[in-house]
Amino acid sequence: MPSSKVVITTHRSPDGDAIGSSLGLYHFLILNGIEASVIIPDPDPEFLRWMAGHEHITVFELDQEKAKSLISEANVIFSLDYNRLDRIAEMGAWVEKASAKKILIDHHIDPATYFDFSLSDTSASSTAQLVFQFADNLGWNSLLNKEIAECLYSGIMTDTGSFKFSSTSAYTHRVVADLMDAGLVPDHVHNSIFDNNSYDRLQLLGYALSNKFEYDADLGISIIGVSLSEKNRFKYQKGDTEGLVNYGLSVKGSKMAVFLSEELNFTKFSFRSKGQVDVNKIARAYFNGGGHKNAAGGRLDMSLKDAINYLKDVIQNKISP
Ligand SMILES: [Mn+2]
Predict the structure, then answer these.
(1) What are 53-95's pLDDT values in tens digits?
(2) Looking at the structure, do residues 129 and 187 belong to the same domain, yes or no?
(3) From ligand 1's centre to the CA of 183, what distance in Å?
(4) Rounded to the nearest whole angstrom, what is the distance from the C-alpha of residue 233 to the centroid of ligand 1?
(5) Those residues with Cβ within 8 angstroms of residue 290's Cβ, 6 or more apart along the chain or in another chain
(6) Largest CB tally within 10 Å, which of 23, 108, 173, 276?
(7) CA distance linking residue 194 with residue 157, whole number of Å
(8) pTM of the predicted model, to two decimals?
(9) Cα of 127 to ligand 1 centre, how many Å?
(10) How close is the Cα of 211 to the center of ligand 1, in Å?
C-alpha cells in the first residue's frame, strides 16, 4: 500500500487495548512509509496518554472537520477492537459511507459482515495481540521496536487483567517475550498505567466499595453502582472507575459482577463473570450491549436508581447464573 492513506479507528470510551492496538498498528504503518492516522470517537483517559504517537491522535468529538476529511480521503480504514459501527457513535455514519476498503482486527463476538477483510478471533486475549499477529504475518516483525512493544503490551496487559484472565494463552506470553526482546520494560508500562491514581479516584473507589456495594451470596452476584452526583463529588475523570467491577468479581464465590455508572441521561453497565456465566448474552439480550463471554458492557437510558431496579428484575426473573 505504498501511496495509501490509512485511517485507524477504535471504539468509544477507548481503553488500553483500543489505544495500544491502534498506536501499535500506526507505528508499523508509518515505519513502512504509509501515511496513517488514528481517530478515536471521544477522548481516552489520562493514564493512556503517555504512549508514543499519542500526540498524533485525532479525537472525532473535538475535531470533527479534520476527522471527517481523513475518513473520506482514506483508501483503507481499520476497525480495531470493535466490530459494529454503533460502537463508534456518530463516527460510524462517516466510516460507513467512506469509499475506503474496510479492515477489521478484533476479538469480540459476532462481527458485522460489512468489512472487506476480517482478522476476527474471539479466543485472542486482545486486539493488540492480533495486531502483533497481523504484522507478523506480513513479515513486519523486524520493525518491532520499543515504542510499538509498549503500545501492544499496554493492550495485552490491560485486556488480560495483567495476564490473569482465561484468554491469556501460551501464545500471549510468546508475544510478550518478543516484545521484551524488542526493548519493552514491563514494569515501566505497568507503573504508567496502574500507578497513576489521583487521590480523588482512590476516595471514590473506597466510597463505592464501602457504601455502594451489594453482594448476594446465594446467587454469587455483586452489584456496584455510582451516581453522577457521587462521581462529581469525587471530581470524576474519565477512567476513574475502570476496574472497579473486578472487585465485585473478586468476592469469594462470586460468579458475576455488575458495575453501573450513571451519566447525564443514561447509565452504563460493565459485566464480568466467571466460567460458564455468559455476560455477552445477558448484555445483548437486556442491556443494549455485548462483548465477550466473561466481560461485556451495555447502556440503558435510565437513571442509576431505575437501572439497578431493572437489573435486579432481570437477575430475579430472566437469568439464573
Ligand atoms: Mn480488546
Answers:
(1) 999 999 999 999 999 999 999 999 999 999 999 999 999 999 9
(2) yes
(3) 23
(4) 30
(5) 108, 109, 110, 280, 283, 284, 296, 297, 298
(6) 23
(7) 11
(8) 0.87
(9) 5
(10) 30
